[in-house]
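Raw record, unedited: DUF1203 domain-containing protein
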Amino acid sequence: MHFTALPTTAVRALQNGGTDAYALACETAISDGAGTPCRHCLTHIPKGENMLILAYRPFAKAQAYAETGPIFLCAKECTRGGGTSLPPILTTSPDYLLKGYCTQDRIVYGTGKIVTPAEIPAYVADVFTDKKVAYIHVRSARNNCYQLRIDRP
C-alpha cells in the first residue's frame, strides 16, 4: 500500500492564492497544534503556524460520488508526504473511515468501514483483494474530512 498526499502542483497553486473547489479564496488561520492535519506533508501543522482552510474535492470532475469538504494545508511550502509507512496524520485520531473506489471514481459498496490506526494496514490489504477497488480514501470518522488516498503498491 502507498499513502498518497495531495499533488504538490495543486497545493502550490493554493498556497500561492489559488481558489478552492468552490472557486473561493482559501481562508488563513493560525494552527492551534491539535487536529490540523496538512494533506500535503501529512503531518499536523505546528501550533502558531499559518494554515489554509479550504474546500477540496479529491476527484478530477464533479459527479454524484465526488464528495467535497474542508481540509487544512500548511500556508507555507512544505514537502509532500506519503510512502508505505502510516503517516503522522493517521496516528492521532482513535479511528478513520476508509472507502474503496473503482476506476470510474465510484464507491465500491461494502468497502466503507471505520477502523483504528492499528487496523488500517490489515483492512487496506483486505479491501485490495477486491479487484474492483482501484484506490481507497481515508476520511475523518468524526467529520468526514478527506485525509489522503491509499494506492495499490
